[in-house]
Amino acid sequence: MPRFLADLSRLFSSPRFWLLAVIGFTLLYFFLEHEGFYYGDDYSYGLYAHQLIAGGFRFDDYPFCHRFMVFVPTALFYWLWGVNAYTTSLWPLCCSLGTLMVVYFTFRREHPVAANWAMVFFGFYYFQLNTVTYLYPDNILLFLTLCCLIVLYQARKQLASSTKEVLYGICFVILNLMAFLTKETIVYALPFYLIIFLYQLNRGENRRFWVTSVLTGTLLLSIYFLMYEVFAGNAFQRFQDIETAGRYVTGEEYFAKRSSVLLSRLTYKPFLFFAGSGLAVPIGFAVAATILGGRNSSFALNNSLGFWSIASLSMLFCIWFGSVSLHYYKPMYLQPRMFHPMLPAFCIVAGLAVEQIWTQRRLYLILALLFLLCAYVAGGSMWAIYLPLTFFFLIFFIAKKPIPFFLGLTAVAIATSIRPIYFIFKPTVFYYTDQKAIIDKHLRHPSGNYVVLTDSAMLVKYDFFYGYQTPKNYDYQRYSAFDATKITHADSVFLLINNGVLEHPDMGIRTRERDILPLFPAAELIDQKGKVKLFYLPKDTLR
User: Fold this and answer.
1) Alpha carbon of 12 to those of 114, 338, 363, 448: distances in Å?
2) 170 near 219, Cβ under 8 Å?
3) Which is nearest to 384 in space by CA: 419, 409, 410?
4) Which ranges of 62-189 would DSSP assign to H, the alpha helix?
5) What is the edge-to-edge ordering of all strands in the sheet holding 450-454?
6) Is a pLDDT exceeding 70 seen at residue 543?
7) What is the pTM of this model?
8) pLDDT digits (tens, 9 = 90+) for 102-112
9) Residue 498: strand, helix, or coil
10) Looking at residue 316, what DSSP letter applies?
11) Cβ density class 510-531: b for 16+ within 10 Å, e for less
């Protein structure tokens, strides 16, 4: 091999290179694709964070207010650098980068090849990147779940000393409590914990670790419930709020047609979901490697591949068949971010499996067929990911030549980065930056009284654009419920239209600009940025 290719192979086979490459790509995506504000859960978590530093935080009977590990760190960022789109989503970004660091430092020496694959599978996965740009709990839970599993991974064999057992036990419980304070779905890891516990109990290993974990967990949970009893008046307030909100979101329509939708949800729909979300890439590698590994594939818990395979399968089983409620059966939604807690485990399994059988030529054929099937099933834009991978592996299978490890890794990185790159260059959806610029320029008068007519989404979340400190001389109202008799106190009236929000399907708003402007025929356009328009409404023309 020429020296140039040898140096290139060495560089592209280095875990440090892929760590830096994936971190760099993540940061580019964060700053270049950031939508700013999503008019969803990010508003609620940001509001709780602001209340913590400004005073006035209280439980509001909504499940989000109990997820302290989402908004407490965010409150620290608000305190340091103020409220803005980037400080709001900085904590999820840190957790994604932290996940990469944990994978790197855990596997770089013992399994460097697996570390490379795992970082590529994880770091270029679109929906993981997508959730670094807004304040949802899923990337945070992803990181904490991985940390919990890493503690168990290190303790899968007898620890060196009793001191280590005790420290690992305390660390394990604290990490799980932090995950529980992030999102309740950490409970899907409990069956795997039980498997490890019974396995080591049978072998008489790490008894101090488990005793410490049970005692520390009992103590911390007792304190947790006692604090709720003192400050909320109900030790189980969180669970009641979850049940109430879950029942409301579910609606009676689900119970009316539950029998007709459960069969598909519990059988073939998850497979379609894997193909449509892109999760089929790491899962495909893991499945192909398992098929070829056959009897040589070890699934013993003290084996690296066995540990992460059983962890993935046990959590997958819970998410596949588990219920989001204890009072009625309702499986988890098939949304990519709902599978985030097991994403690192998926990627690690795929990396460890490929590490063992990469040189087998039959692997290329199986991968080509799997990705071709995924392209057919997923359809739409997903062909841009699956077809390049299909042709890549098929060509090398037909050529009867082994694929250099670094070349295969690079091909997967390029293919899976296509979708994130597309969204980087794709025009903004919500036009947050444009709307923020217009508000900062025209809707911050220090004196006088002003009314701003806007849409239903903006009406309940406009204070984010003011850092949750809306000037008291501003009154936002919905233009569809406008009443001219109630604005006599206003010095000026404005009409704010964000067509990006109105046209976004997730907002569920049917009204369009063409429906609004006829209501205000004398509207005078003051400023326009992108799809955001600000109009001045002369008071004497309003009726």
Assistant:
1) 13, 32, 21, 62
2) no
3) 419
4) 68-81, 85-88, 90-107, 112-123, 126-130, 138-154, 162-180
5) 474-478, 450-454, 492-498, 532-537, 524-529
6) no
7) 0.93
8) 999 999 999 99
9) strand
10) H
11) eeeeeebeeebeebeeeeeebb
Separation between Cα atoms, residue 18 and residue 26, nearest integer Å? 12
Q: Are 120 and 409 in contact (CB under 8 A)?
A: yes
Reading phi first (left if > 0) and then psi (alpha if -120 to 50, else beta), residue 530 is in left
Q: How many residues does the chain have?
A: 543
Q: CB atoms < 10 A from the CB of 251, how many?
A: 9
Q: Which of 77-81, 359-363, 442-446 comes out lowest in average pLDDT?
A: 359-363
Quote the CA–CA distance of 527 and 339 in Å, as a whole number. 42
Answer with the residue of higher pLDDT: 24 or 355: 24
Segment holding 524, helix H or strand E: strand 524-529
Nearest CA to 280 out of 127, 394, 92, 116 is that of: 127
Place of tokens 């997923």: 378
Neighbours of 219 (CB within 10 A): 11
Task: Count the neighbouring beta carbons within 10 Å of the beta carbon of residue 39.
Answer: 20
CA 169/CA 460 separation, integer angstroms: 44
Residue 265 has pLDDT above 70, yes or no: yes
Looking at residues 233-249, what average pLDDT do you find? Answer: 85
**Structure token digits, residue 513:** 């600009």
Q: What is the spatial distance between Cα 138 and Cα 159, in angstroms, rounded to a whole number?
A: 31
253: phi then psi, degrees, rounded to nearest 5: -60, -35
Which two three-digit tokens encode residue 144?
């904490």
pLDDT, residue 294, reads 57
Token digits for 471? 């000037």
**What burial class does residue 383 get, using C-beta atoms within 10 Å of its C-beta: 0-12 exposed, 13-18 middle, 19+ buried?**
middle
How far, in Å, CA of 283 to CA of 296, rounded? 19
Rounded CA-CA distance 295/276 in Å is 31
What is the Cα–Cα distance from 454 to 487, expressed in whole angstroms?
Answer: 15
Burial of 502 (0-12, 13-18, 19+ CB in 10 A): buried
Question: What does the alpha-carbon distance between residue 391 and residue 388 come to, in Å, rounded to a whole number?
Answer: 5
CA gap 301, 195 in Å, rounded: 9
Identity (one letter) of the amino acid at 492?
A: S
User: What value does the mean pLDDT of the chain take?
Assistant: 91
Query: For residues 396 and 403, is the Cβ–Cβ distance under 8 A?
Result: yes
pLDDT top residue among 423 and 401: 423
User: Shortest CA distance to 343 belongs to which of 311, 383, 375, 320?
Assistant: 311
Strands 450-454 and 474-478: parallel
